[in-house]
Amino acid sequence: MCLLELKNINKYYKISGSNKFHAIKDVNVSFNKGELVSIIGESGSGKSTLMNLIGGLDSNYSGELLVNGKDIGKLRKKELDKYRKSTVGFVFQSFNLISHLSILDNVTIAMTLSNVKKKARIKRAKEILSELGLENQINKKPSQLSGGQKQRVAIARALINNPEIIIADEPTGSLDSKTTMQVLEILRNIAEKGKLVIMVTHSEKVASCSSRVVKIADGKIISDDEIFKFENTYELENASSNQKRFKFFGIRGKNLGIISAVKLSLKNMKEKLTRNIFLSIGGSIGIMSVILMLSLGNGVKTYFNKTMNNYVNPLVIEANMPSDEDDETINLDVTTIQKPELNKQKSFEDADIQKLSQIENVSKIEKGYTSISIGSNSLNYDGKSSNLMRLSTISSNITESNLQEGSLPKEGEMLINKSVSDKLGGDVVGKKVTLNILLGQKVVKTELTVSGIENAGGDLSSIMKSAFLNYSDLEKIYLDNNSTLKPNVMYLDTTNEKYTPQIKGKVKELGYLGSSQDQMTSMFNEMINIVTYVLSAIAAISLVVSAIMIVVVMYISVVERTKEIGIIKAIGARRKDIRRIFVCEAFLIGVFSGVIGVVASYLIMKGINTMSNKLFNINLVIIRRVYAVFGLCVSIIISMLSGLLPANKAAKLDPVESLRRE
Ligand code: ADP
Ligand code: MG
User: Where does this chain mainly localize (predicted)?
Assistant: First the structure.
């Protein structure tokens, strides 16, 4: 059985519409191991076309092309890739080395595509390169070699997977006569060792060195002469060791691994370093804006919540009755207050108190009463008078830390805030003051001692003239005037801060409201969230821009590297491998953009916070780790999605046409 047999091969090229060009006409020929065949013929006679068919680069023909008795026209795509990868080796006139890869990488790439381990790859490549006298050149780039050396590298690359057939399309066409002889000698050696070498040439001199000369004209074989036979010294060696080797690389070899793909991509990207740096910076801007917008929202929210909770005892949870009117929210705008009595809140009944006290982790429950009004309550001292906008009972909510002066009120005492104290002349701690409460239609006067000055809640609550007294004292005042005090606020105490959120949640679940501060905080948080998301969405528009940028740059890259893609395909890369290399590049761009974006965000955060700390004593921008991770992921996903289109285009390139590209 012949190694390679062509039966009735016909090949037509489509020219335009239904116009076809008959390039190979009824070719019947067979070749054997250990032959060095020269194919000669005029330019345009169909030599390259024939080589591409034999090499499995072009499957669009009729007839049978048998290799070891197997018709390669009937192979599945995957098998055909494997055939190119391990059964044939290609050598081209123009060397077709990949310029940005070292000699070693150029030679090993075919093994990289088979996912052979790095160590094995290098060992095998060094072996072959030193056989061809190139052991000192392995770290050079192709441009640093002479033509003869380049062609020897190309031969080494063709031999790396130990193929049975070497196809050389005018391998000496670009070489001077001295190096031509060197390369011929090498090809002869290869044939002598039992391979089939088919070489296209123009030169009669070159042809005369081969064992057989096939003449082709106008797509037909016009002569086929055997000149001599190599002594088949190879048979022994070949049958045992080489066959085993062939199995190792050809059959057990897998496909391009992810890590190799990343390494290849990195080498490609290094070649166009400036472009890729700018691309990454461009991509990072969108990521950075989104991260910064989210972080700005977070910073503002954090600042607000901290301010709101600064003076609140975290161990006390406030519960309020919801008002009758569903839509009536807490109205903080003092100027709109018209009614003297604003407390339209319902009171807590025993059943409510019962329900609240049963919440888990509540250690104590306190009754409270708060009256917010204009004109109904006031304080008199030493001929001076102050309105009380808020008259409230004291609870554990107010602690020593809220006091500016004095102590918390005991029985018969009251706590007033700074603005009330100022109104009464300032020096009132320890003094007796008169509290006037409007109860029903009459004003009730009670003498109380000022125990201290409260200064809690920051600016917000200090403008509200407030006084605090014990629940029992207020209850007594009501009782003395034939009235009953019902709590309109309940304070739930707990033992550990960690229970607070859960208790707050439960209070809401039972249908009560939290403290006015809590309600305001959550309202404000919601507002900031909306603004943050809107701003982030606007910032995200720049992500679309960077996606388009990546698509464009990668399309350009595919066009630039068409030839390289053709070479890799000729060596046996599958579509999937090509796609993988490009998607990997997109992935790396995504990683770089993301990392630059995150790092830049942190730097900008530092800058802004330094400034805002100087001016307002706050951190305006607070990046959370999830934002950084989110930014990085978004960057990678967008890049990879954008890379898919160009990668597909690259994968679909026709190898024959790509190789013809200059
Ligand atoms: P050569 O013997 O010089 O290598 P080729 O095999 O490259 O010749 O080409 C054989 C013939 O087929 C030429 O006439 C060429 O014009 C034609 N041909 C080659 N490739 C194509 C193609 N892609 N489309 C149309 N015609 C082609
Ligand atoms: Mg040609």
Answer: membrane
Give distance in angstroms: CA of 169 to centre of ligand 2. 7
| Domain boundaries along the sequence of the chain | 34-62+85-255, 268-303+535-660, 312-514
Is residue 20 lining ligand 1, measured as CB closer than 6 Å?
no
Output the pLDDT for position 426.
Answer: 82
Q: Which CATH number applies to 34-62+85-255: 3.40.640.10, 3.40.50.300, 1.20.1250.20, 3.40.190.10?
A: 3.40.50.300
Can you tell me the mean pLDDT for 333-342? 45
Cα angle 597-587-271, degrees, rounded to a multiple of 5: 90
3-state secondary structure 620-631: CCCCCHHHHHHH
How many Cβ atoms from other residues are within 10 Å of residue 475's Cβ?
A: 18
* Mean pLDDT taken over the chain: 87
pLDDT of residue 241: 44
pTM: 0.74
Q: What is the mean pLDDT of residues 190-208?
A: 90
Judge whether 297 and 531 are in contact, CB under 8 Å.
yes
Ligand nearest to the CA of 219: 1
Q: Which atom of ligand 1 is nearest to the CA of 41?
A: 2
β-bridge pairing 62-67 and 4-16: antiparallel
When mean pLDDT is compared over 208-222, 223-237, 361-375, 485-499, the highest value belongs to 208-222
